Amino acid sequence: MRAYQLIMLLSCLILYTLAQGQDNNTAFSTSNYLPSRDTAIIRNAMTIALDIETIYPDSAYMIYQRTFKESIERNFDFGIANSLRRMGDLKAKREDFVTARLFYNKSIQYCMTRPSLGFMLPNLFNNVGISYQNIGQYENAIAAYTKALQTKDQYPGTTLEKSAVLLNLSGPFISLRQYKSANRYLDLAASEALKQNDNKLYQEALENKGCVAGLQRDYQAGKKYFEESIEISERYHFNKNTALINIGVIDYLQKDYDTALSILLNTLSKTDAISKTDRVTALKTIGELYLTEKKYDKAEGYLLQALKESRGLHQPEYIAECSGFLANLYKETGNFKKAIQFQDSYMQIKDSLNSIEVSRNVNTLEINYRTAQKDKTLAEQQLTIVKQQNGMKAMALWILAIGSALLLLLITLLAVRHMYRNKQVKLNQQLYHQQQAEILLRQQKELELLKATMAGEEKERERIARELHDGIGGMLAATKMKVSTRQTMVDPDVHKEQILAMLTATADEVRKTAHNLMPDVLIKNGLENALTIYCDAISSAGNLQLDIDFQGMPYHLSKAAELVIYRITQELIQNVIKHADATVTAVLIKKLKNKFSVIVEDDGVGFNNDILHEGLGLQNLRFRVLALQGNIEISSSLGKGTLVHIDFDIERLQDKIA
Predict the structure, then answer these.
(1) In this structure, are residues 453 and 624 in contact, taking their beta carbons and an 8 Å threshold?
(2) Is the dihedral of CA 281, 283, 286, 287 positive or negative?
């Protein structure tokens, strides 16, 4: 494999030399291999760089830097976005997740301004989520994975599988101990994997389901998931070491120490086929098992190795656990100095992770250590005192008592201070989550209001466009055809009269359209007369008895506000005509102090509020009212009709549409 990749790298360099027209004596340089004329060479170079990434990451990175520069010079959109993404991938492989995310975000910004590059967005957002997850920023990771799913639906041609994103999305929820959400996404990932016949992703989803069950102490279910994962791994020759190690952990937790030790040691021996994270898990669990059996020498070796490797992986949770176990080990073996050292390390890491509990108590270790040191000192002092003066014994005892009391007081104060600090961390954490939830809720509400406003405007534009196209547009086209045939007409006067008649009809259609935009009756006679005429016209058709009443008049509204009330009332009545199958409908327009109300009640079929969701029309109407800072209440039941009650503050309404 390495020989093939080296050949590809040399081919890339030779390709550069030929493209530049250099002679055979020109030295090769990975930072300057691209020609200045053909974007096909950029694509080939990126393909070669991808092939050599694993063996020659530095050379691949330099190639991507050059393809990025050359793509900018040629305005080659795909080359710009893909070079940024690949440089981010190389930084992520070196665990420089901050720099990796900078490259991903630059590529995202570029793709969002180029519709042709939209297919790259799901992969980019997925990579951003992975980078956040690796540094413990789980809320940001969830947001990025969610964006990956959204863009996946918008650009179905992307190579990223939906099941892979769902599987990634479960990870932050597991870390946040939100197991219900984690299981929901794992179930979706497994379902998608089965649809796609992706056995590998299905096996990984089963492993994660097993981990969640284990974390919830449902060891029987967890073991079942892992055993099913192993069965699939053996069938399709996948790596099964992760599932084996987790089964070993479950056996240990169920106190089947012999079976657990056999599985973990056997799996740990497969050095080439086990991941670094799984290796740390196995080392830590074996060390904990030996510690439980009081085999301190063996426990110390495995725990120290696990601690060393977890530090290399930047895994604070594992570092904290290993430190805690080592603190217990040294406490049991009487090495209180080391016990305090590892206990302090454990507590510092827990504090940095905003842990709400500390599972070890450093106070006991400190007392034991200081007492041991004090006993040694006192023994030496007492020997000297006995030799010099027997009468000083009582005084020494008093000094010892006072010193012990002061030490106990100091330790108590430290414990109280530590508890207070933990309480403050917990309160700050709760306040932060509450603020984030309020911000999210406010953003969702604003988004819904914006969507409703846009939907209302789009509906109005569609209606106007339809009237212009079907009415005025058709009539003008007919008039044009009539004018074009004037030379073939026998009687020019008759032809002229026909054209004038058609122009008159077109003018009437224009007036009708203008009337729909701002009805004449509303302009001339006001809202009350306009609605009365509208309702009388519907009632005269004979299909629906429509009664309208006005209370609390007169009132003073701007023409823009009257048009809003007129259109909303029209929409409510049209909903009754289309969907309610009603015979009688009552409309009440009411003004009380500074409040303006529209109430529409029908005797139609109604619907069940507890079962059915509102239709799109009612939802859009609800959001339009909220966007105008009004209030709407809809109540209905099967066979008993529907009541819609809308209230507006007159000043707010007129300010909103001014």
Answers:
(1) yes
(2) negative
Burial (0-12, 13-18, 19+ Cβ within 10 Å), 448: middle
Total count of residues recorded for the chain: 658
Q: Name residue 97's amino acid.
A: F
DSSP count for the chain of H helices, then E strands: 25, 5
Q: Which of 173, 122, 171, 115 is nearest to 150 (CA)?
A: 122
Per DSSP, 335 falls in state: -
Indicate if the pLDDT at residue 393 is higher than 90.
no
Check if the beta carbon of residue 634 is closer than 8 Å to that of residue 643. yes
pLDDT band at 432; cut points 50, 70, 90: confident
CA neighbours within 13 Å on the CB side: how many for 470? 8
State the chain's maximal CA–CA distance in angstroms.
150
Specify burial of residue 439 (Cβ count, 10 A radius: 0-12, 13-18, 19+): exposed
The helix/strand/coil state of 424 is helix
What type of residue is 477?
A: A
CA separation for the pair 265, 286 (Å, rounded): 8
DSSP letters spanning 590-632: EEETTEEEEEEEE-S----TTTSPPPHHHHHHHHHHHHTT-EE
pLDDT at 318: 84
Kindly list the structural domains of the chain, giving each domain's residue range(s) and its CATH number in brackets, ordered by start. Answer: 239-360 (1.25.40.10), 374-517 (no CATH), 521-657 (3.30.565.10)
- Per the prediction, the chain carries an average pLDDT of 80
- pLDDT tens profile 451-490: 555 555 566 666 666 666 655 666 676 677 767 765 555 5
Does the pLDDT at position 588 exceed 60? yes
Sign of the CA dihedral running 452, 453, 458, 464 = positive
Residue 486 neighbours by CB under 8 Å, 6+ apart: 492, 495, 499
